[in-house]
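The methods section describes the discrete structure representation at length, but only in general terms. An entry of this sort, consisting of the sequence and the corresponding backbone structure tokens, reads as follows:
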Amino acid sequence: MKTILIILLLLLGVGTVLFFFESHRFNQWLKNGHQKIRNHQGVGTQVDVQTLPLLLQNYLQKVLVGKPSISYIEFTQSGDFRMTPKDEMAPFTAEQIVSVRSPMFSWVAKIPMNGLPITVCDRLIDEQGELQARLFSAIPLAKGSGDRFLRGELLRYLAEIPWYPMAILNQPNIEWQQSEENKVKGTLSMKRISATVEYTFNDKGLIESIFVPDREKIDGQNIEQRPWLGEFSQYDERSGVIIPTRGQVSWLLSEGKFTYFVGNVTSYKMMGK
């Protein structure tokens, strides 16, 4: 009996050490990713505004109040999130850091589900898309990377440009094309992988929605291409730039629209030179 107790205590001790080691390693991975974005200066090439579609030219005149010269943005969010149409919305808070000079971002969210703390990181760094979800920052729940995730992260970077429109002026590698009277398409390529997002502008010249007809939706072992929709509203000035302070993201499924993310921008800082 005494021997069994000793073994159990040893196992508990080893498990505790491994738990804290994994938690520390994950948190360090998050910090290192953020620091890479802060340190990255990009190519520093400015886009000639006159070469952009007229819709984008007018949009930038409206939203870049102070025309800031920066290298990255940090902002926080709060809102609601769910995994499947059957789930109830769960509240979340998140922080995001994003480069306006290169396609790089890191989104870290805290999502309590069933009373348990889950940390999710979705990011694009060093030309690699990555996703990790962990319980207590230590126990892996989901992990993915590779070319499939790279296209998804490129789509996300493009889709969220209304939150950092300075990227339009700082990234000549984004190709812009006006597709309709109130629509523009942006295309970004990396490692022979191409991603295109269509932007729809409202009557005030602001981006009201983004659309991707064929983003990969991963549901367990099933992968299918489904239309993906983002909607923006409640534009307001933050640190010299006018951004939508509210956004929601949905999949357009055969059974109808599935909104899985509704978020509000709670703080916004422009950083670097």
Summary: The two ends are 66 Å apart (CA to CA). Residues 5 and 11 are 10 Å apart (CA to CA). The longest strand covers residues 222-238. The helical segments are 2-39, 54-63, 147-159, 166-170.
